UniProtKB/TrEMBL annotation:
Residues 128-140 have a biased composition (Low complexity). This is Mycolic acid cyclopropane synthetase. One of its GO terms (molecular function) is methyltransferase activity. Residues 98-150 are annotated as: Disordered.
Length: 150
C-alpha cells in the first residue's frame, strides 16, 4: 500500500501562479477542471456552468444543508451551490492565491445585490504528521450522506 506524502511546496508553485496566467485559458468563473459541452455552440463559460450544475444536481442538495468542497479553487462550485440550492458552503484549498482572490471578489451574483454572499470558510488544509488514511473510507474520512453521493 503506498503512502501519501504532502507535496505542499509543489502544490503552491502550481496553484499560486498569478490569476492573470490562469485567465489566459480559464473562463471568468476561474473553474479549473473539465467542462461539459452539451451542445457544440456552447461557450467555455456555459460549459463550465453545465458541468457544475450536473455535478451539484447529483448531490440532492436541500436548503440549509452544508456542502464541503475539497479543493475548491476560486470557489465557482461553492458560489453556484449557494446561489441555486441555498446551501451553506465550506471550501478547502491549499492555494493562498485562490483564497485571497475569493475574498477580494464579491461572493454574489450580479442579480443578488441585496442578498449576502455565501457563508464560506476557505482555508489551506494539510495533513500534519502521521500516515495518511489508506482510503477515502478509512479513519479520518466521512461523507455527508449515507450513499456518499456528495
Amino acid at each position: 500500500m503506498s503512502q501519501f506524502k504532502p507535496f505542499f511546496t509543489q502544490v503552491q508553485s502550481h496553484y499560486d501562479l498569478s490569476d492573470d496566467f490562469f485567465l489566459l485559458f480559464l473562463d471568468p468563473s476561474m473553474t479549473y477542471s473539465c467542462a461539459y459541452f452539451q451542445r457544440e455552440d456552447m461557450t467555455l463559460q456555459q460549459a463550465q456552468r453545465a458541468k457544475i450544475d450536473l455535478s451539484l444536481g447529483k448531490c440532492d442538495l436541500q436548503p440549509g444543508m452544508t456542502l464541503l468542497d475539497i479543493g475548491c479553487g476560486w470557489g465557482s462550485t461553492m458560489l453556484r451551490a449557494h446561489e441555486k440550492y441555498d446551501v451553506n458552503v465550506i471550501g478547502l484549498t491549499l492555494s493562498d492565491n485562490q483564497y485571497q482572490t475569493r475574498h477580494r471578489t464579491p461572493a454574489r451574483s450580479a442579480g443578488d445585490a441585496d442578498r449576502p454572499g455565501p457563508p464560506a470558510g476557505l482555508g489551506g488544509v494539510r495533513r500534519a504528521g502521521g500516515p495518511a488514511p489508506a482510503s477515502p473510507t478509512g479513519p479520518g474520512w466521512t461523507v455527508s450522506s449515507a450513499d456518499g453521493r456528495c
